[in-house]
Amino acid sequence: MLQHRGAGLILRVKATEMVKVMDSKGTKRSLWLLAILVVLAAGAYVVQRADTLSQIAQKPLPTKVPENSAPATFPASPEFSTSEPTKENPVSQNSPAHESLAPQPRPVRRPASVEVAQKPAREVSLDHTKVRSVASVMNLDPATPPAPPSLLPAAPALAEEPVAETAHAKAPAATNETKKFARHGKVIITPEYALATIFSKDRNTHDTATLASKYWLVVKAQYAQVWSSRFRTSLYLKLGLVDFEAPLASTKSLTNTKKFLSGLGVDAQYHWNEHNRVAAHLEVAKELFVRGKNTQQDTVDAINVTSFGVRSEHDLAHLQPFLIGATAAYVAKLPAASSAYDVKFGNEFGAGIYLDHLARDQKTSRFRTDLGAAYRMQSTSISTQSEMRLSLGLRLNFDIDEGGE
Predict the structure, then answer these.
(1) In 10 A of CB 15, how many CB atoms?
(2) How far apart (Å, rounded) are the C-alpha atoms in residues 56 and 267?
(3) CB neighbours of residue 242 within 10 Å
(4) Rg (CA), the chain
(5) How far is it between the farthest Cα atoms of the chain?
(6) How far apart are CA 257 and CA 300, in angstroms?
(7) Average pLDDT over the chain, rounded to whole?
(8) CB 185 within 8 A of CB 149
(9) Residue 362 — left, alpha, or beta (φ > 0 → left; ψ -120 to 50 → alpha)?
(10) How far apart are CA 2 and CA 180, in angstroms?
(11) What is the per-residue pLDDT for 247?
């Protein structure tokens, strides 16, 4: 009590002195002194509070473990599964001493996310894809505590069912580059109109005869098999009818002015490159030969002659949709025999130009016009003979799809 009274007297004395100071030196200085005193008092309070908190922190807090609560157990990891004592851990983990020395952990509260994952698995159908819940993937049992997050197995990726392909996905857009060439057949019909002149000279009498035709009509039917974009083969049949005028510069008459002609052959054509083609053919066809029947009459014979020929074609200009080109040919006429005379080996040379009308793809020919000239030299055992022919033909192409590749 005496201490408190003394402190009160001291405060009164200080207050009295402060009043005197305020009165003597002015109000401004007194306010500064009051602020300093307030700051000192606040600092003393903070220091005293800090000391009290440090003393409380140094005292151990009593911990109580509930009697009915069991410590949480975690699945044993392979790196901690050994029971042998080591230098760092001299007491075995499975020994009773270790159990008595080990601190009792507090009950572990299960996370809300794990509790939700322990619910029974269920299947949800989303766009034909079955998705299972996390509990079925992790294979957790609600009766046992969950393992630490670091020990949980990684969830496998959910398998997605294949999406049915649409017709557009199965069949990509066909282009000229990706589309395969399809083997197909082709029918070619070629009507032809020609004018011919035959020059003949008898070996014995040296009489000459010049026969000019009124017309020479030929129709050629051809079936071609196109094996690839470069190669094709064909089989053809041609039929013709020729009518001659009376012999020129001759006193002889002609016994038969009309002749029916036919021929059968095979042909193969190869595209050497985009603008050049070569072809070869083998055929048996009727050829015309003039002979003097007597001193007053001449006659025309049609004899089957086998021939082998080659042909070359070259494209000169492409004026869309037309293609202009030139041809050159050589035909070897093999020897033949008849009841009246023998036919010797002969040659035929030909040349021409063509105008090809192309389809929209600018590769396939729709129809073609040929203008050509040929000169044949083939004599017999009784006469020498040559033939000059000028022809104009129109070739029509018809494709047949067979679906082969």
Answers:
(1) 10
(2) 117
(3) 23
(4) 59
(5) 187
(6) 8
(7) 74
(8) no
(9) left
(10) 121
(11) 80
The SS3 assignment for 297 reads strand
Q: Which amino acid belongs to residue 4?
A: H
Q: What beta strand segments (E) does 60-160 contain? A: 123-126, 129-132
> Residue 190 has which token pair?
């070629």
Class of domain 183-305+320-404: mainly beta
Looking at the DSSP assignment, which residues form a beta bridge with residue 193? 217, 392
Count other C-beta atoms under 10 Å from residue 216's C-beta: 21
Burial class (CB in 10 A: 0-12, 13-18, 19+), 343: buried
Contact 343, 382 (CB under 8 A): no
* The pLDDT of residue 151: 47
Which portions of the chain are predicted below pLDDT 70?
Answer: 1-30, 47, 50, 57-179, 249-251, 361-363, 402-405
* 283 closest CA partner among 218, 222, 236: 236
- Contacts for 350 with CB less than 8 Å, ≥ 6 apart: 327, 328, 329, 330, 331, 372, 373, 374, 375
pLDDT value, residue 366: 83
Q: Which two tokens mark 187?
A: 């029918």
CA atoms within 13 A on the CB side of 3: 0
In sequence order, the β-bridge partners of residue 322 are 319, 357
State how far the alpha carbon of 387 is from the alpha carbons of 75, 346, 348, 349, in Å: 110, 11, 9, 11
Stated as kind and residue range, the H or E segment containing 8 is helix 2-25
Query: Which pLDDT value is given to residue 28?
Result: 63
DSSP calls for 349-402: EEEEEEEEEE-TTSSSEEEEEEEEEEEEE--BSSEEEEEEEEEEEEEEEEEEEE
Structure confidence at residue 81 (pLDDT): 46
Element (H, E) at 30: helix 27-58
Quick check: 291 and 382 in contact, CB under 8 A?
yes
Residue pointed to by tokens 């200080």: 14
Residues 305 and 336 sit within 8 Å (Cβ to Cβ): yes
Q: Residue 154's pLDDT is what? A: 55
pLDDT in tens, 287-306: 999 988 777 888 899 999 99
pLDDT of residue 399: 85
DSSP bridge pairs for 393: 192, 370
Shortest CA distance to 144 belongs to which of 74, 48, 77? 74
Structure tokens at 116: 């939700």
Closest CA to 267 of 188, 181, 323: 188
Secondary structure class of 335 (helix, strand, coil): coil
The β-bridge partners of 290 are 300
Domain boundaries, the chain: 183-305+320-404
